[in-house]
Amino acid sequence: MGRRVAIVGVGMTKFVRRAQETGKELAYYAAKEALDYCGMKLSQIDAVVIGSAPDTFDGVHMKGEYLSDGAGGFNKPTLRCYVGGGTGVFAVICGWYHVASGLIDSCLVVCEEKMSSYQPHPQGAFLTIFDHTTERPLKPNLLWIFALEMNRYMTTYGIKKEEIALVAVKNKKNALDHPAAQLKEEITVQDVLNSPVLAYPVQRLDVSPVSDGACAIVMVNEYLARRWTNKPVWVEGVGWSLDTAYWTNRDLCYPRYVEEAARMAYKMAGVTNPRYDIHIAEPYDPFDYKELHHLEGLMLCGKGEAPQLTVDGVTQRDGDLPVCPSGGLLGVGNPIAAAGLMKVIELFLQLRGEAGKRQVARKVRRGVAQAWGDLMQVGAVTVLGI
Amino acid sequence: MKFLGTGLKDEEIKERKVCLAYWKADAKYAWDCGIAIGKYLAGLKEGKILGVKCEKCGRIMVPPRIFCEECFRTIDSWVELKDTGKVNTFSLCYITWDMKFLKEPQIPAVIEIDGASPGHGIMHLLGEVKPEEVKVGMKVKAVWKKKEEREGAITDILYFKPI
């Protein structure tokens, strides 16, 4: 299965609605901090992986090349990867296979997003995910696709909006303890239910914000891991899968592509009973219902059962399976590619016991991070352990 | 960790308190519709919803394609479907893409088309229905543009209405 790969350093910027910094500058802040975290210099990095989502946000074509000097990736083997919202975890998977292959000993992984450049709203850039001939003439809104999925999920399993709203309440509260958080807030279920209806059943407080930000990690082989840290966090499993773009031909009530990706990662990690082998989870949560959907796809509970776990408090930071202790995208923010990597950074800190106020109550030795994107069709999963 | 980064406020941007550079893309696209969708659109112009069939897995697919992505083989035949179906899921959308609010919602839905394989649908709009009356599973029928106004586009179907 290749050489053992560890994460030894992490860095991230604040997540904000609009940053004064350019994408290059944000990438530099995160990359430099990740190197400083473990005491490495750029000259000690063999390769760089850059993750960012649509070039249309920044209005710069070939964004990997554009970011490369800020990300430390010039005059080095550098690769830009992109699978929409799945990019933040997929970039970790790319970093993993660089090092696991034995070709590269140390790899810097940098994810950036600066969505604010696109005016008046980045959603305009997102409209290009709809088919240009059969869907775009209907003048869709990006929220349609999530609202249609949310409604299908709720109707299929008889899920109440109040149950879903609990996720937004939990994540925004968790974010109060995250120094980078953009939308930390103590809200109630009633606040969610009273917030403006955007695209029924999606209301404003169900949705993560538009954000600018960057994150970075340093990945190394086992030999270097022992040299650079006494607390390596190992990449125990990776998995990814892409479902059909014919999204209206799939049942939107269940993310089978997440399950496919999870099975791949769990097999590699030796996880046979996810609910017990996985102690902490950071599923992708651009909407509150998505956290539930993804918990099911990650097989951390049965289909339609995630809302009950939430109601029972199992997913709280002091619960048996803490979910999004970071505050997730709903609380910390959603600079798309950086958001997925933020989840991996959270697991790194939790597994090392360095999450501070966010540290979960139970002992954790293994966690899973997952990101999702495109036309509800990308699953990217990584299992980390100590 | 220092969590660097300088957030800007909306006023700072509106009042030009920070330097900004503007550029407006002047780009137009003229997409070819392709073999399968081209024929589908020609069918819509005639008031027909067309699908395709793969004899290996038996799926009747809509929107049509020239290949079965499950079997990875060329499709075998075209099938005329009905212009009725049922609502698989829907939304009531009160905002536009640039976040302005609408008084009356748009009602997008995934409509499973009768004659196609189960779960095979298209996204379109619902009309002639009160928002509170829309339900998953509701049976609907296409409302077509007048024949002389049809142009071979998805909008040749104005919307689907309950039956």
Task: Estimate what percentage of residues of chain B fall within beta strands.
Answer: 25-35%
Largest interface comes to: A-B, 59 and 54 residues
Low-confidence stretches of chain A: none
How many strands, which pairing sense, and closed or not: the largest β-sheet of chain B?
5 strands, antiparallel
Arithmetic mean of pLDDT of chain A: 96
How far from one another are the termini of chain B?
61 Å
Question: What is the rounded Rg of chain A?
Answer: 19 Å
- Give the tally of β-strands of chain A: 11
Summing up helix and strand content along with how strands pair, one would put the structural category of chain A as alpha/beta
Quaternary structure type: heterodimer
In helices, the fraction of residues of chain B equals: under 10%
Q: In percent, how helical is the residue content of chain A?
A: 25-40%
- State the end-to-end CA separation of chain A: 18 Å
Percent of residues of chain A in beta strands? 15-25%
Average per-residue pLDDT of chain B, rounded, comes to 95
Shape of chain A: globular
CA-based shape of chain B: extended
Radius of gyration of chain B: 22 Å
Number of helices of chain A: 15
Strand order of the largest sheet of chain A: 3-2-4-7-1-8-11-10-9
β-strand number of chain B: 12
